[in-house]
């Protein structure tokens, strides 16, 4: 077997997990590699340190667990909030509903996801509203239907939009009144904080969020997410749940140490700001092109736009990769912590060139 | 936050997952880090390459999936072999029975583990026998008891012993006759191959094994195991199972690329041979010490021995870490791919010094 | 404690399980009561006899299991057709989707129900169509979404309509082409057969149905449904599944013997015909009343109609019970095997009297 | 199909669920049959009445649910007391361990049953002891093993013995100290009360039991058990659990009304006393026979005895049915509410005749 150096590949706009590990994370990963023998299962020094650092970041004494990916983080968090005969209110575009292959239903042994009505201005931006939550929770109360127990928000949303602090608070208020727990899928939590310019606490526990799945992978880690319980009563025996569910890393330091790289000097925020800025750059470059219909103002690190089908074909032929979610040319262009201005400009130029006329 | 260089720690004999990442794995991890954008979820080049390399290693066209850890590998493999009302025959010391927090029961939605009688020479060495399997499978056949569907072997065993090729074959033969599938927990598969000096195929598919969980972590990876289906009919839709169960890495290359480091130049085998040799070295150094009772000849990378309790206390006081599994001084001393002869010698010297008289 | 004779209550149109046990079923229940000691768990003579009688009725050598209720019948049947990472295509009004509290998801450990588009003439009648199935099965084929594995039809539907033989055949044909199994929720199967005037086999195995849940309770039993596997390969080890799931009656004869009462002299069909006729009688009596809008022609034993809200209130005040499913006065009036013409006429008269003008 | 009167069969000693429905239960079943239309799912008058009567019997304001059988009662009760990563301490002969086909593991999504050491005087009588519970709960406390959360007692035990009030109290005291909940499998609860001559409350909530599964079937019902929560905080949303798990009877009155027959005039206690007396009668008749070795004094409605294998064969040849649980001739002879003295005498005479010499 040979060991050739692979040349860096063309940057893509398909997903922010096409990007690799950011240099700061890599530096700590390297240190974990060099350290020799370490206690397993999280009894090492890095894991303790990063937990402390996260508590500091969130300005509260929260409970923190590290798991391997977002499906696991969301599914285990939801399973800790509801029993099999309960249900979770979310949007129709929620990742837990559309892209985790029934993970939440599996880990909870059957909890149903209740998709809230999307036919409103907020719904079209991928957001829940207090009214939509209220409508779902009051629709049925008989024992023949799973009892709503959780509201799940994605922040930033799957459509590249961001809940304001007030929006989170309003939903959490309804949730509390209806005895629902509030889960936040924060696969792109950093991007939302970067956009809002707020403290992480402002859109989590201070606004009424009980559990946050804080995404590390899309922000620059090789692997790993953090489950952050602000309501510590909800994390009783969660360590056993993580172990049983195959989410406890034996060599935990390789999962936890790179988090120190994200957290030192607010690298996580810098990474997110950069990705967001690249989305703005792309948006600015294409929004006025004839034939391009931007679906909504980008607020995080993605641009959603409709292109003529021949343009899509032409772009693919040039090697560009991106997802089409919506019939008739709706495309998602996703930027990452490492997306370069040059790549954005090249992509925008190719979009312009691909358009008719 | 400061970024100090942590000094390498004292080597330990507690677990082979105290060891870090081996240099060859690290080299490929580094390449995956440097490569820039890569398709996610396994559509990258490394994942394809390592799958090919594993098929070559096993000399057959097997189906291969990468998951995060051993609990997940074993639990998902077993879940693919049996339904909730089926059962799995294993030993009383099997890792799936004693150390996965009910993971197999969870992923299979309730399959029961049937612990075979350990009161035999083989049983005391942590091994199943054809007779023990036969006894379990014929004990009950009514619908009030979970129907046996799988035999699970651990190779090398949890007691540091190794099934011979003939032993695996004999158990698999009974299994086939009784319509049981054969699962091999290979968390230390490499150590068994190193001991036997056989081909990997000799103790797997050629001997009748249907699915192998091939351990990478203990062999020198930072994270990750491979599930290898020799009977490809058993892996139908397994990719969906992996995804739903939160075991599909988005940035898969960081999980798969280091495997190339293990596989090139048979590093996996060299790593295992070294660990085994260190166990032999430790065994040779302590077996004749008065007060030490080695429980059985080490065949893989662990020594099991009884020490006087004061000696155990004295060793712990000197900072040595190891597990005691058995009442009255039974200790497990585990060696890893990176255990140095110097560490072994220092540990053996401290054992000698800790003994009375 | 006293033991007063309760006077028979006013008949209701809320549900066909408000009705009790039909006389023929009661006669056999009584015989099971009188017989003294009998082997448990289905090894009694009645259970064998009724299985034989059902095979005769369906004109094929099917596998038959008796369970306690419809939720269990449907959930266990579906669980035998799909794994946790698979999905089931059904309508938005399917009982498995709306009224089993997540039972299918629970028993299958997470299988998702995919609700097919209802916006078509058939959809508005509570029916799936080949096109709707095709659309669902081709919508996604990636591993991030549960793979469709089953189509579930309700016959008669939850809206009191009935699939024709041709409609069942057409859906089953698409299912076969797409490698989906076909499940039929037959809680009111008898009512559908009565309407179609066909053989039970015509709308089941001859049309491509793999498993039927044949409802006994609504047809006149005190408790119990039959799960009928036409594809016997799908029922492997189903007896273990039933036992583990808490659905195996110890004194099975009390569940199975009354089925003999339904089957002898085609009582099941007579019961269904009577219930259907009562729905027709009610329909005829109210369809032309000003202020009543019948939603669609009744084909089984229910009439769906919109009434002015004050009329609904007035009817409830007179002690009538029925369900309102649809905002603005949509009501379901359900007839049973024991609904009397006098009750229908009295109810229709009260409806007429409750209407304005 | 003909409708012959089946002659009452020879009484058997295989199981107390070979017996049918007792006359008092039958009388109320008949009333439920005769009453015409009734609300479904437990909103009928009988269900309310029997719940009240049970609260009176237990002298406390407990929460009561009716399910179809013992597997469901035990499994749902246990699932409400523990999560998938918890465990349940029980004996090696516990019905939940040996005869429910993994039902508890299934409904709890993976909770492990921990079998306590049986090698003690109490263990040989099928009983847990405080020491055995303490040993299990202190054996492991790491996250790699399911955390003990419940102690499950069977009262009367599977070996026909009975916990005294003091024994239950002592186990419950340890349980409380170790934060374990106490579940009682009361499939033959009535037989235990009859033996002890105590109030039902004395061996349940007054002694520290949290949840009782009160067996109706073996006591004379056609189908049905009651789950009685003395700690009402544990039954939150249990109605949803019952529905989802396929255990909510639509025509609930047929399940609940017969309970009124058991409860009026303490029929349940009379039935149990009779069954117990028949076991005493059989015991008296055979205990001194040469060749018969009674294993222990019967305390409930079963006699356990070793017979020479040829005697077992001879008895079977005469048509007698009973179970052999233990190698070498250990037989279980079970009496029921309807076992006649004549049957006991005939069976004892045949045993005597079957013995050598």
Automatic annotation (TrEMBL), chains A, B, C, D:
Residue stretches making up the Aromatic amino acid beta-eliminating lyase/threonine aldolase domain: 12-305
EC number: 4.1.2.48
Catalytic activity: L-threonine = acetaldehyde + glycine; L-allo-threonine = acetaldehyde + glycine
Top-rank taxon: Bacteria
One Gene Ontology biological process: L-threonine catabolic process
Cofactor(s) required for function per UniProt: pyridoxal 5'-phosphate
CDD domains membership: TA_like
InterPro entries noted in UniProt: ArAA_b-elim_lyase/Thr_aldolase, Low_specificity_L-TA_bact, PyrdxlP-dep_Trfase, PyrdxlP-dep_Trfase_major, PyrdxlP-dep_Trfase_small
GO molecular function, one term: L-allo-threonine aldolase activity
Enzyme class, broadest EC rank: lyase
SUPFAM superfamilies: PLP-dependent transferases (SSF53383)
One Pfam short name: Beta_elim_lyase
Family: Belongs to the threonine aldolase family.
Job of this protein: Catalyzes the cleavage of L-allo-threonine and L-threonine to glycine and acetaldehyde.
Subunit structure: Homotetramer.
Protein name, entry field: L-threonine aldolase
Organism field: Sphaerotilus mobilis
Organismal lineage: Bacteria, Pseudomonadati, Pseudomonadota, Betaproteobacteria, Burkholderiales
């Amino acid at each position: 077997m040979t060991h050739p150096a692979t040349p860096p590949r063309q940057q893509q706009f398909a997903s922010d997990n096409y990007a690799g590990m950011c240099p700061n994370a890599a530096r700590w990963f390297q240190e974990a590699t060099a350290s020799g023998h370490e206690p397993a299962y999280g009894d090492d020094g890095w894991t303790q340190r990063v937990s402390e650092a996260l508590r500091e970041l969130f300005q509260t004494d929260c409970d923190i667990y590290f798991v391997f990916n977002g499906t696991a983080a969301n599914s285990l968090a939801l399973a800790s909030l509801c029993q099999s005969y309960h249900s979770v209110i979310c949007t129709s575009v929620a990742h837990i509903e559309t892209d985790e292959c029934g993970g939440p239903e599996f880990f909870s042994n059957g909890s149903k996801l209740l998709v809230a009505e999307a036919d409103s201005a907020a719904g079209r931006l991928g957001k829940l509203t207090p009214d939509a939550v209220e409508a779902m929770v009051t629709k049925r109360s008989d024992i023949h239907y799973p009892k709503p127990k959780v509201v799940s928000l994605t922040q930033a949303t799957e459509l590249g939009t961001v809940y304001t602090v007030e929006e989170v608070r309003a939903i959490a208020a309804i949730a509390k009144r209806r005895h629902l727990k509030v889960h936040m899928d924060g696969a792109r939590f950093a991007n939302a904080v970067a956009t809002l310019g707020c403290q992480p606490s402002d859109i989590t526990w201070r606004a009424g969020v009980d559990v946050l799945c804080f995404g590390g992978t899309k922000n620059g880690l090789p692997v790993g997410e953090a489950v952050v319980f602000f309501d510590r009563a909800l994390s009783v025996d969660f360590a056993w749940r993580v172990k049983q569910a195959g989410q406890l890393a034996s060599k935990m330091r390789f999962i936890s140490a790179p988090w120190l790289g994200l957290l030192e000097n607010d690298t996580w925020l810098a990474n997110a700001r950069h990705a967001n800025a690249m989305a703005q750059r792309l948006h600015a470059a294409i929004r006025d092109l004839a034939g391009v219909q931007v679906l909504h103002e980008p607020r995080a690190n993605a641009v959603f736009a409709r292109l003529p089908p021949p343009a899509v074909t032409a772009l693919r032929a040039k090697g560009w990769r991106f997802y089409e979610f919506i019939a008739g040319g709706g495309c998602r262009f996703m930027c990452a912590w490492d997306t370069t201005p040059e790549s954005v400009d090249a992509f925008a130029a190719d979009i312009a060139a691909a358009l008719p006329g």
